[in-house]
């Protein structure tokens, strides 16, 4: 693959980072501020999309920001895998921005300027992770994301937000400094470089299996944003944030950044061949399987809708790691593909949860009886989203799960197939009751009548993402192709 | 003005201006600010000139008053000392912007006295990094110490008591150093570092030499507040007048660590220290490890911003001492890079603390609530400094920590690696505790707080320092390759 | 025992300074009165000054004031004059020690004015109030 030097990767990352400045400057003029947000989001999609043709043709872009450590520059590079993630993130950010405007204004939230500015920085960091050319750059943007999301998680600034914020940072910063950083340093010491290379950089270092296992586990737990148990506790806690934050950051950007980092490490630091050689695939799949099953079971017990979605997310994230851990091309494609499919599905679900909160002020599933009749569009979208997550055809989730299942069979680990099936069943068990209650249960006594659909700014984005989930079943071509390119198929 | 003695102008500017500040300042206080800023601005520019000359034409030595070494006093200008000159003069310049309004507020009417000491201290520090003479080093060490005693004693309340304790401890340190130099003189008959370094290996490492090393190092450790000899520092630095803390906290310990490096490699040599005495070498890394962990834990117990920062300084001393004693080039580069970075990030945090003190008065944690609303710019800079202390890229602190940890891995000193990571985590806790306090407000207090930033003269250097932290971070590649690698002693 | 005594007698000047130093050190660390601490510090410094000076001494040597004509004729006979360098160094060291003492005394004055005592215990007691 040949990379051409270009300013575009930097532009894609910087546009929202610098965009935070005009947002901050137009503090007192909300309409202007929101125009900036939309303009930047739009610009971002355009810049990312403009690089797509080259990537599809097997090319790529590279931009070196600074040479900081011997052999390890701070460098941005657009390859198929990064493009895949950047595309998902930037498109969904556009929808989230629209949705945020509706949500924040409907609830008349305080400090909206800080909110939108932090959001802009967070999406910059997300694209930075996607376009990182080496582990150090990835780590840099990973930390930037952790820190820029702190004001978002603690947006309400009350006692609960404070506790959750502390938990959020403890998990995220603690693991990244305590595990990921030393793992990165040991890798550098062994390999002399941190560059993401097809086939990995550790194979040539001659490190023994136990060292490799140690580094691998440090990396998997170090990128705790992926929510691998036991370092998943921050995600339910972070649900105190306003819903657009939960939907985008904790459905798409933050958590997927964790998964993306782990995938990068597995694909481009270790390399599947090396992992196969030292039999470390099982370490990954075991951790992931355990997380999938436990998280799905816990999700069943949650009454708070957002918390149920959070545990569902934890389970789904491990699907992606599981796919990578199969170490077969199809499984890895499935894992990567699930990033996109789950993103569209889960963001729809969160958008719906937010819409319900905006329209009816309800957070708990047990109170949502009969709501579906009053908010049919929202509930239909919710139904679509949940079907996609469960992996039913004709929804996008089916494609990725199909690949995962094929990968499991191909790798000869039928137990993984069982995990996938059981988990899909559990997914159905925790999603269907919500829809059922909404449509078929009578509303509770004394329920006010005035509940209508959420404002259009909320409704339109969630309809679009729901339709996208549907559409991705029929036209998965672009994402499938990028994912296949990324794993070298 | 020829370029060959440009470094003398760097040193002479603050020294001579000290005199004028004292005399003219008596006439009118309005002379103080332009004199101080002018002298330090000149020094900064000249020191940059010295650095570029050294990088261009290589190191050179200068004999004061034309007395030839080894009898006369020799000044050594090599990449390392030139780098330190730039660091000292620029930190001093930035600090004085903020110190001027602080002193006018806290020590009203004594500005000229304060800045006389302040400038002499800077001149002393500059002399320290240049001198190539062991006894001259003692004299300069005492010049800096005496001025610091005076500056600290100008504080309110318990400050004189803290200063007195510092005098006792500082004098013990200086006397130990002098004693060590005495041994060296008796052994070699010389006081010139290069000369001693030539004679010592011929003597073989006997007990007297070990005693000399021991006394010199312990003396310097007291001065740099290496745990467990740190007892004097928290009180002295936190009770000092804010203006004095701005200069003393970033520079004093760092310059002393530079001196340790200088003495270790210019007098005793890496071979004697590391190869002949491996037990001492690894023992020192363990001591540094203990210093980092204990000081970090002590920092957790503090309820005042400035006191917390003083304990972090002590932990950082452990970082650098450990890095030097790792006995590999990565660790040593990390330690030297950390001298630069730590000076700047300490400066950044103390500048922010000064700005807060200027507006809020007290730096107790309880008084910091709602500060992000009240002083957003100050707190933004504070946050950058805090990130650098924690070691979050791309701030400077991350990269020096990178080299230090990598050096620890290379040397197989895992305890040191763990200590550094542990300390990073503790720093994260420490700073996010403050950030949380300043970010959240009292329950129910949702009224829009009034914005009241510190005056522009304090904000300017603060913003500049915070920006420098990021620039140095991104530029650490060229910095290490271009300057610090050249500064490593022969054999590394 | 005799050997031990011989060692002490052969280098009695050094032993003397060790004893002096320990006295000073004890006063600095052990005494609770701030002035006594300061005096201890002075004793400590004096011990070091004595060590340096004695290091320059030689048996039967004269003070290092040379006759110009004699030097031109015979050169310097180093064995006949004491080494002047330690003395010179110690002049500087004395200056340093005097200035430290001066600063310390000034600070002690301030402390006394503030607390009315120079006993560390009493000051701490007042601070604790």
Question: Overall mean pLDDT score of chain A?
Answer: 85
Uncertain runs of chain C with pLDDT below 50, 5 residues or more? none
Counting DSSP H or I runs of 4 or more residues, the number of helices of chain A is 19
- Beta percentage of chain A is under 5%
Radius of gyration of chain A: 21 Å
- For the report, how would you describe the main beta sheet of chain A? 3 strands, mixed
Computed Rg of chain C: 21 Å
Low-confidence stretches of chain A: none
Give the helix level of chain A as a range of percent. Answer: over 70%
CATH class of chain C: Mainly Alpha
Anisotropy-based shape of chain A: globular
Largest sheet composition of chain C: none
Q: How would you characterize the overall build of this protein?
A:
The complex is a heterotrimer of chains A (about 500), B (about 500) and C (about 130). By secondary structure, chain A is mostly helical. Chain A has a domain of about 210 residues. Chain A contains 19 helices and three strands. Chain B has about 500 residues and is an all-alpha fold. Chain B has a domain of about 220 residues. Chain B has a two-stranded antiparallel sheet. The longest helix of chain B has about 35 residues. Chain C is mainly α. Chains B and C meet through helix 5 and helix 6 of B and helix 3 and helix 5 of C.
